[in-house]
Write a structure and sequence with these properties.
Length: 231
């Protein structure tokens, strides 16, 4: 099976007023279609940077990033934006919902950017909200939702467009134990039923107990890569 995500000798160095800070130091990684995997490590280890590079949100200092058979680090900004819009779903720690939009409108937002007709995008967004158990909250704005509900809307937004890959950056960090576990179980169910590839950055032991593979980063380098075979 060919990888759906790949990093080759991936390096990222941030420059702030002439001071260089290495975030990734020659990372090699392959993620197979349908995996439910986590990149773990302490704060500052390079977890978020790795996801941002694989997701075409940032450019590497050197090395290669691939989505399927396409080398993405060499794409133009317009082409990278197209990949982000059409093929990758993102779930962020801060939710990044649009305050003036309802849950349904937020879930449909990527589909709107894709030019999907209104009726179809509303149907797909509602189906995503239903899959996450929050269809009854469809017409509430983010300020009337709990943190866990907002994060479910963020997952619904990522899934409504039926991406090949979902990249989730610390998705349970702002959630209490019960809500975080419920979200993990929902994402695992969606992975099993739809075959969507999930790659998380996390240091949450609750999430690490449910993934199939744990890739550990320290100081921008992979120090272990273990398939744990979680059910």
């Amino acid at each position: 099976m060919k990888p759906i995500l790949r990093a080759v000798r991936l390096t990222k160095v941030y420059d702030s007023d002439g001071v260089e800070t290495p975030a990734l130091r020659g990372v090699d990684l392959e993620v197979l279609p349908g995996e439910f995997a986590a990149v773990a490590g302490p704060s500052g280890s390079g977890k978020s940077t790795l996801l941002h590079l694989l997701g075409c949100l940032d450019e590497p200092t050197s090395g290669e990033t691939w989505l399927g058979q396409r080398r993405t680090d060499q794409l133009s900004p317009k082409a990278r934006a197209h990949v982000r819009l059409r093929e990758i779903g993102f779930v962020f720690q801060a939710y990044n919902l649009i305050p003036v939009m309802t849950a349904l409108e937020n879930a449909a937002f990527v589909l709107e950017l894709q030019g999907v007709p209104k009726k179809e995008r509303q149907e797909k967004a509602m189906a995503a909200l239903e899959a996450l158990g929050i269809a009854d909250l469809a017409h509430r704005r983010p300020n009337r939702l709990s943190g866990g509900q907002q994060q479910r809307v963020a997952v619904a937004r990522a899934l409504a467009a039926e991406p090949r890959v979902v990249l989730a950056d610390e998705p349970t960090a702002n959630l209490d134990s019960k809500t975080g576990l419920a979200l993990i179980e929902l994402m695992k169910k969606l992975n099993e039923e739809r075959g969507i590839t999930f790659l998380f950055s996390t240091h949450d032991p609750r999430l690490l107990e449910h993934v199939q593979r744990i890739i550990r980063l320290e100081d921008g380098r992979i120090v272990s890569d273990e398939r744990v075979g979680a059910a």
